[in-house]
Amino acid sequence: MELNTNVLDKSEPIINNWRLSSETILPQQINQKKKEDTGYDIYPYHSLGSGKINNGYASLVNWIIEQKTVRIDGFNGVFWNAVQTAIDDVLNKKGITVKWTYLTDHIKDSQDIEKLVTPFLGEEKSVWGTKTTLTLSNFFQTNQLSSLIPDEEYEVNIAIGVGAALLNWDSPLVYLEIPKNEIQYRFRAGAITNIGADEVDGAAEAYKRSYFVDWVVLNNHKQNILNQISIVADAQWKESINWAFNSDVQQGLKEMSQSVFRVRPWFEAGAWGGHWMQEKIEGLNKEEVNYAWSFELIVPENGVLFESDGNLLEVPFDLLMYQQAQAVLGKHEPTFGTEFPIRFDFLDTFDGGNLSIQCHPSLEYIRKEFGENITQDETYYILDCKEDAKVYLGFQEDIDPKAFEEALEDSQEHSKEIDITKYVQVLDANKHDLFLIPNGTVHSAGANNLVLEISATPYIFTFKMYDWMRMGLDGHPRPINIDHAFKNLKFDRKGEKVKNELVAKPKVIENGTGYEIIHLPTHQEHFYDVHRIEFDEQVSIETENVCHILMLVEGSEVTVITLDGTTMNFNYAETFVIPAAAKSYTILNNGKGKAKVVKAFVKDNASLLVK
Length: 611
Known about the structure:
The structure is a single chain. The chain is α+β, with helices and mostly antiparallel strands and 611 residues long. Strand 29 and strand 30 form a beta hairpin. The two termini are 23 Å apart.
C-alpha cells in the first residue's frame, strides 16, 4: 500500500476555509435505515439506544453549570477557539460568570517544541520519522500547570485545550474527539497546526509529525485518562457538537467487542486512482478526480459511529482497542496488546494507473528505523478486475540487482522511462486471486484492478522505486526511495519461485451441506492467514478465541447473527469484524446464488513471527 503524501490540488473546494476536501462531512443526524435499503453503506453505525447522544452546546453547558468546575481536553485538530466561544455564548446568555484557563497559555515556546520533536522527524524531506518517546507533559511548562487552580469567585471554572487533564483538578473531564480524515482536511486548508507549532509546514509534514509524534503522545495520554473521562464529544463539525456520557460509550464499545461491528470507511484520491468505487458506492463525490483508496479497517485512521435518536457520534477505532483488546483479540492479545494487527483497504485502479513499483521494510528495519512493532506484510486479494488486469510481483529469473539499481537511479536523475518488465515479473490478475507480498518483495498493482489489500496494520512504509514518470495530484513528482528499498529487497524472490511461493494455491479444508471453506495459504512470513467461506444458504463458524475480519466478496447481502443474538446485515464489499469474544456466529445468504466471504485471522504461531 502507498499513501498520497501530496497536498490535494488547489482546485479542490475549500468549505468555509476550514477543511480542504471534496468529501462531504459526516452528518450530525441521520435517518434510521429502512430494511429495504441495500448497497454499500458509507455511514455504518451502532445504536446506543434512545437518549444516549446529545446534540449541541446548550445541553453540554447545562451539564457544565451543574458541575461548576470542568476540564475540557481533546485531540489536536479541534477548533478550540470555536468550542470556547460557543460555550461562552451560552453561559453569557444565562448570566453565568465563568473563569477560563487556557492550556495554550502554558505550552512551551514553539522553538523549544521544535527542538523536542525534531529527533523523531527523520530527514527534512523524508516521508518518515521514528515514533516518539515523548509524553504530552513534555510539551508544557509543568511548573506552571501545578500552580493553576479554580477561582471560587466565579460560578463556573473551565480549563480548556489539549492536555487539560494534566491539571490536578478534582473535577469532571470532557474529551473532544475528531476523526483522522477531518484532521488531515484541516491541515490541508491550513486551518490547524501541530501541537505547539506556530504554522502549518505543509500538509505532508503536518501528517508526518502527527503520525510519529502528536498522535503517539495524545493516544498514550488518552489511555492514561480513560477512566477519568465523564463525557466524550465529537468535534468534527464547525458550529456544533454531539456528545455522550463516557459510561454509555464504554458500554457500546463493550457490546461491540462481544458481537460484530463495522467501522466507518473513508476515501481518498491518488495519482493512480480509479473509478470502481466512484461508480458503485452511493454517497461518494462523482466529481472527484478519482478514488485510489478506501480505508476500510485501519486502526490509526478509522472511526466507529454510534447512533441515538438519529444523532451520530464518531469515536476512534483505537478507543475500542484501549478498552476491549482482550475481548477483540482473544488469545492474540498478549502478542499485540492494544494494536489491532490486521487491516483491510481497497486499492482502486479501474480505468486508472499502476501503483508505483515498491517494497516494504523488514521487521528489523521498521523497528530500528521507524519505531513500529510489526512490519507491513501485505497480500492483494482481487475483488474485481478487467480482462487485461495485471499484478507486478517478484523479479525476473535473470535479475541483476546492480543493473536494476542503476536503471532506477538513471530514471530518477534524468526523468527517463524504463521498461520495468525487464526486471519485475508481470502476472495476470483474476477475480478471487490472492497474491502474497511479504516484506522485501518488489510489487505493484496494475491498472484495472479493485484490490482488497489484506495486510498487517502498518500502512505508510512504502519504498517507491519507480513511479511511471507521472506527477502527484499536486503536480509534483512523488518521493522515490531507492536507498531504503535496496536495504530491504529480497532478490531471491524471482522466476518460478514467485508463482510457486507468492500466489496462494486454494485448497478446500472443510465442507458440509451447502458450504465449503477454502484455505488461501499466505506466506510463511505472514502472521495472518486467509480463508474463503462459500455457501448457498447459511454457515456457522466458531471463533476459537481468535478475531475474524471478513468481507462479502461475492453475493449481494448477508446477515450475521452472533451467539449473543446480535444481528447485522452486510452488503457486497463491506468489511466487518467478529471479535474473539463472540465465540460463534452464523452467516445467512440473503442474495441469489452462492455467497463468498473472505476471512482473515491471526495465525496460532504469530507470536513467533513478530518476535
